[in-house]
């Protein structure tokens, strides 16, 4: 039996495998070295931990020497609350911008598009000044506000595209059924854009979770540090506790990985739905 | 009671005028069909009645109440869409019950109505399915069921059969006719298919370029079209039109010359004067291959379509004008033949230069 495989397909798969290795490589490196002794990390960075080199000292030190649990909770709170707000406000704004014709509709859409093109970090100084005035420095609220502003433009763009694909007749049918506009949004639009919401969730969640910049300038102390900031305490100017750094990074990867696996089914559908149509 | 009346309705989208001066009254229990070519504004008019579009001018009354400012649900209408517009993430049962949930109907009553409608539409076995698991015909029945359970006083249909195949279309057409008989509700139906209009309507409204061309019973429109547009739109294949001229017009009769022949039409020619240019219309099915007292038009056959019981003969007259004749299916005529079509005087429609019909004979229809 001969299997007919076109050469072009093989090439595509080789490219994909190479890219996957490139992307996964650093993560694997972190994972395997997190469970090795300091000596083994430097002697054989690519080797798997064996009976001789295996240790959990990094994890022990992370839990013993720092408020890692607190940082973790901070990260989780900031990410989850920001995500919830972005999805909710984003979906509602996208619905309003695509469904209703009102004065300033186009201007508002353009304004939001600019938000995608201009990185929010350019405004760091003003944001910091504003947070100082509002007395929000070293609070999670400051981070959440910034992340919501950062995530909304793209969320509105993606969700708007999806909402536009929902047939207009559906909304009209619901209106004939006597369903209120809020109900139409909640009972018809939201369930139908679930794949898009998953896409938006993943796209906005990862940068928020991984961000170092804003935690560093807006909430560097007062027990409001996030995980990425917490890791930094093990990296010193003269001595770096690699066991602890790798262990805390391993812990930091876990929640993103879990959420990604949960959403990935929708994510693939969400990404392709827009492309095929 | 749910009569619907429209007074001076006009609608513009920006500078584009979609509808103007629409006056219409629909009696309670009537089945009215809006028909016209695409872009004539018939769907917009239906959506205006539904409350999905606002009007630029005019007043809409349903059951004697002014409803201009009312939401669709308050107007007690239900609409069936061409695309079915079923909620894809809900089961058939939920699709039908969805609207009732918000109308504060109690659970038992909702259940009773949904099951009753499902029974009537043969959907009982499908209540737990999702719309994507249904065929086109079943989806359309669910859409109709969703309208029925609301017990509206006016049903609105927006080209409900356009997405169905030919056989299913005939079936569903009959079901809609039966539904109208059983419920006795007022129904307004939009289509571009004049066969649907003829078979379903108790009253047809012919629309063209945002205006009502004629309102009347199906046979009335067929027999006495008011102008060239209606004459050409109603009937299939469409009516033949030939340029003609009035040779003489007295109080008793008119002589009209067309296609190299003359016809004497008895009756009062009214505003027609000798020398006027006119258009003569006659339907393909009213022409015979031979018969007394008829104008004979001879020409060359370009093509013949055999329908079985009849053949459609496409011919060109020596004057260059094209004709369609519905001949008997037995007729051996084939393309390239010479063919003589006989047009009885009783079949002639006369239209003046403005395209308006001129009644000369008193047919007593």
UniProtKB/TrEMBL annotation, chain A:
SUPFAM superfamilies in the record: MetI-like
One of the protein's GO biological processes: transmembrane transport
Entry keyword Transit peptide: no
Principal cellular location given in the protein's record: membrane
Cellular component GO terms held in the UniProt record: plasma membrane
Membrane topology: Multi-pass membrane protein
PROSITE patterns named among the record's database cross-references: ABC_TM1 (PS50928)
Domain ABC transmembrane type-1: from-to ranges: 72-263
Keyword tags: Cell membrane, Membrane, Transmembrane, Transmembrane helix, Transport
Subcellular location: Cell membrane
Pfam families assigned: BPD_transp_1
The keyword Ubl conjugation is assigned to this record: no
PANTHER family: ABC TRANSPORTER PERMEASE PROTEIN MG189-RELATED, ABC TRANSPORTER PERMEASE PROTEIN MG189-RELATED-RELATED
Family of the protein in this entry: Belongs to the binding-protein-dependent transport system permease family.
Protein name, entry field: Carbohydrate ABC transporter membrane protein 2 (CUT1 family)
TrEMBL record, chain B:
Chief subcellular location: membrane
Domain of life: Bacteria
Family as reported in the entry's similarity comment: Belongs to the ABC transporter superfamily.
Source organism per UniProt: Microvirga subterranea
Recorded topology in the membrane: Peripheral membrane protein
GO MF: ABC-type maltose transporter activity; ATP binding; ATP hydrolysis activity
Subcellular location(s) per record: Cell inner membrane
UniProt KW keywords: ATP-binding, Nucleotide-binding, Sugar transport, Transport
UniProt-listed SMART domains: AAA
TM annotation in the entry: none
Protein name: Multiple sugar transport system ATP-binding protein/multiple sugar transport system ATP-binding protein
Domain ABC transporter: 4-234
